[in-house]
Amino acid sequence: GAVVSQHPSRVICKSGTSVKIECRSLDFQATTMFWYRQFPKQSLMLMATSNEGSKATYEQGVEKDKFLINHASLTLSTLTVTSAHPEDSSFYICSAGETLQNTEAFFGQGTRLTVV
Amino acid sequence: DAKTTQPTSMDCAEGRAANLPCNHSTISGNEYVYWYRQIHSQGPQYIIHGLKNNETNEMASLIITEDRKSSTLILPHATLRDTAVYYCIVRFPTGANNLFFGTGTRLTVIP
C-alpha cells in the first residue's frame, strides 16, 4: 500500500523556538495532505488541509500564523510550529491520499512534540 | 459527513473474534463506512471500508446492515497486537481525504 513518511518521530524543543515537521508521500503524488493534532487520551483533530501550490486551509480555531504549512511539491508538506509553547506539546500526524474516488487516506507515523 | 457512535471500550480474549459495533443512523446513500485503528503512539492504520455489501480482507470483515444504519467490524482471531483504538468513519468517497475522527472504541485484547 501507499506509504506516508513523517519526520521527525519525536522532538523536544525549548519554549519560544520553532519546530518543522515533514510529511512525505513516498510512492504517490498527493496534491492534498492533511495535518492532525492529538492530545493525550483524545481523538485526532483535523488542523488544516495542505494544498500543493496554494495556501493551506485551516480549521476553525487553528491559528494559521502559528502553524505554518508549506506544500511546495507533490510529495512534501511541512508543518512549522512557530514560537512553541508547552501547550503546543502534542502528537502531530499527517495524512495523504491520491485524490481519486474511493481511496483510503494513509497516515504518517506521527511526531511527538514536547515543548519545555 | 455523517456522525458515528461507538462504545468507548471493549475487551476481547486472545484468539476469539472481536466484534466492534458502530451506529451511523444518519448515513446518506453515497457515504461509505471506513474503519481505521490507532495503536498507541502511532498514526492511524486503514483497515477496511464498504458501501452496502459485506467486505472482507486479510485484516478484518465488515458487516453492514441492510438499512446501512449500523455496521460491525470483525477481527476473526484477535491477537495482543490488535489492542488499539478503532475508529468508524462515514464519508463520501470523492473529494478531499480529510477525516473527522470520533472518540472510537478502545479494544483491549486480553491474554
Number of strands of chain A: 11
Largest sheet of chain A: 7 strands, mixed
Class computed from helices, strands and strand pairing of chain A: mainly beta
Give the terminus-to-terminus CA distance of chain B.
Answer: 37 Å
Number of helical segments of chain B? 0
Mean pLDDT of chain B: 93
Shape of chain A: globular
**SSE series of chain B:** EEEEEEEEE
Oligomer: heterodimer
- Decide which structural class fits the backbone of chain B: mainly beta
Secondary structure: helix percent of chain B: under 10%
Mean pLDDT of chain A: 91
Strand order of the largest sheet of chain B: 1-9-8-3-4
Q: What proportion of the residues of chain B form beta strands (DSSP E)?
A: over 45%
Fraction of helical residues of chain A = under 10%
Distance between the termini of chain A: 37 Å
In total, the number of strands of chain B is 9
Poorly predicted residue ranges of chain B:
none
Element order, helices and strands of chain A? EEEEEEEEEEE
Please describe the topology of this protein.
The complex is a heterodimer of chains A (116) and B (111).
Chain A: E1 4-7, E2 10-13, E3 19-25, E4 32-38, E5 45-51, E6 57-58, E7 67-73, E8 76-81, E9 90-96, E10 106-107, E11 111-115
Chain B: E1 9-13, E2 18-23, E3 32-38, E4 45-50, E5 55-56, E6 61-64, E7 70-75, E8 84-91, E9 105-110
Parallel strand pairs in B: 1-9
Antiparallel strand pairs in B: 2-7, 3-4, 3-8, 5-6, 6-7, 8-9
